[in-house]
Amino acid sequence: MKEADQSPAPDQLTGDDALRSLWPSIPDEEIARWHALPKSRREKVLRRLQALRLWSGADHGKVDVEKVLRIARVNLSTLYAMRQRWDAKPSLDSLGVYVRKNVDEADPKPRGDAEVRARLADLLARTPDLPPSKIARQLDADGLPLPKTTLLRLIRAVRNDLPITAPFGRLITFDNAGADLIDIRDCRQRLCAALDEDTGLVLGWAFSAENDVAHGYAAAAGHALRDGDGGDARDEVLGGLADIDFRGVEIYGHVHSVRFVGPPVGDAAHDVRWRRLLDDGVHDPRFVRSSHDEPLLLRGAVPGSRIVRVLGDRVGPIWIGTGLREPGMGYRTGRRTDYTLATAELHMQIGRALQERNSEILDRMKRRDDEWVDDGELNAIRGLLSVVAGPQSI
């Protein structure tokens, strides 16, 4: 880090004082962008600045690397990458905190009076997966009606403030959401993702054509199995399993299950492209135990509903949504729109946004005081993912 100073200890810093002390020459534009961030991301900026100050404040041989990693809440490879970006150009983006370039483009913050938020917090604390339709009926009965769009934004905002007490890894769901995105062949894309059902962590992701979600699920599982310390490029594991710091995280210690949300078009049960996923899921020894208590194929589930519940209606610069849109119609407005072309740079932006979302979820999860990682259970989860990924994972 290029800017060392004699600022107060990190635990004595708050708000703007903390930001200016850790980054004395911060431009006004970056201060404005910082203020536009949600509270959890503002705190993340401060932690990472504190970590970089420690990292650069002494000879590398004398640095307590574990302390730096604990403060930053990242793994070592992420820390190195963050340091390189910061040395090249200090900015919020170089800290790995996704933020729009123009503060004026930021989505308006969902606003609601204290009574509505308190009622939502109570409902969601008692029933975390309570559907928005039931929440709306309850609020109407309480004399607190809200427009649908406002309600959905408030639900996401309140959910993002609730602590996560469930362990990781009980149930992994593969879902697919529509996106205002096309590939070089002008083919409309869907975001396919492997989600931890109880925590919302994204384990792997990929894009696929609307009519080839089975391939997208295999690619998402393959992304989850990439190894950030085993030769894969850093940007190839962003927003996935290899990029998650599991130190102190409670991992479910019984049967791990996997299930699939069906495609937006066609019938997966009669689609040859789904046959390998479903047949292997039934017959593979690593997978057979997961089919005892959960159906492999979730019939009737709305494609994208789980992804949108976790990520909202935007991932990085791309708008996403549930179900299927008519050709030319966008998820952002529901009207005719120009789609974004998928590029390598866009792929990295999305990876950084998913990395950031995973980090926010980890901040809300309960962690043990120790830093032990249950590699045995993680390997069991990787085994299930390898079945979905197929021969490409071997």
Structural class: alpha/beta
Strand content: 5-15%
What would the principal axes of the Cα set say about the shape?
Answer: globular
Into how many domains do the coordinates divide? 3
User: What is the average per-residue confidence, as pLDDT, rounded to a whole number?
Assistant: 80
Written description of the protein model:
The chain is of the alpha/beta class and about 400 residues long. It folds into three domains: about 10-105, no CATH class; about 115-160; about 170-394. It has 13 helices and eight strands. The protein has helices spanning about 15-20, 30-35, 40-55, 65-70, 75-90, 115-125, 130-140, 150-160, 215-225, 270-285, 305-310, 345-365, 375-390, and strands at about 170-180, 190-195, 200-210, 255-260, 295-300, 315, 320, 340. Strands 1, 2, 3, 4, 5, 6, 7 and 8 form an eight-stranded mixed sheet that branches. A hairpin with a 5-residue loop joins strand 1 and strand 2 (about 190-195). The chain starts with 14 loop residues before the first helix and ends in a 5-residue tail after the last helix. Residues about 1-10 and about 100-110 have low confidence and may be disordered.
Properties at a glance:
disordered N terminus; 8 strands; 394 residues; 13 helices; 8-stranded mixed sheet; globular; alpha/beta; 3 domains
Short recap of the structure:
By secondary structure, the protein is of the alpha/beta class. It has helices spanning 15-22, 28-35, 39-56, 65-72, 76-88, 114-126, 132-141, 148-159, 213-224, 272-283, 305-311, 344-364, 375-389, and strands at 171-182, 188-196, 202-209, 257-261, 297-298, 314-315, 318-321, 340-341. It folds into 3 domains: 10-104, no CATH class; 114-159; 171-393.
